[in-house]
Amino acid sequence: MSSNKEFEGITFDLPKNQSNVIKVIGVGGGGSNAINHMFQQGIRGVDFVICNTDAQALQNSGVPNKIQLGV
């Protein structure tokens, strides 16, 4: 069996010897609050990203990966 998977005509080339990559992205105030909570819980093996138009909310967050929207 090949490492390629097909789903409704779309082919995904999945590497065999690579660990999983998990990124959780929160958008806006609610999404950022959820990500902040998960980050504070110390969940490991996950990259957290928050996206918001509110620069102050981004600055006050401990999450290291931040994207300011609407700049």
3D structure, described in words:
- The protein is of the alpha/beta class and 71 residues long.
- The chain has one domain.
- It is built from 2 helices and 5 strands; from the N terminus they run E-E-E-H-E-H-E.
- The strands form 2 sheets. The chain has a 3-stranded parallel beta sheet. The chain has a two-stranded antiparallel sheet with strand order 1-2.
- It starts with a strand and ends with a strand.
- 10% of the residues are buried.
- The mean pLDDT is 87.
Record keyword descriptors for this entry.
single chain; 71 residues; alpha/beta; three-stranded parallel beta sheet; 2 helices; extended
What does this entry show, briefly?
This protein is 25% helix and 32% strand. The chain has helices at 28-40, 55-59, and strands spanning 4-7, 10-13, 23-27, 47-52, 65-68.
Mean pLDDT: 87
Q: Which percent band covers the strand fraction?
A: 25-35%
Alpha-carbon distance between the two ends:
47 Å
> Radius of gyration, Cα only, in angstroms?
16 Å
Mass-distribution shape? extended
Secondary structure: helix percent: 25-40%
When the domains are counted, the total is 1
Order of helices and strands: EEEHEHE
Tally of contiguous helical segments: 2
- Please give the largest β-sheet: 3 strands, parallel
Number of strands: 5
Derived from helix and strand composition plus strand pairing, the structural class reads: alpha/beta
Strand order of the largest sheet: 3-4-5
Contiguous uncertain segments of 5+ residues = none
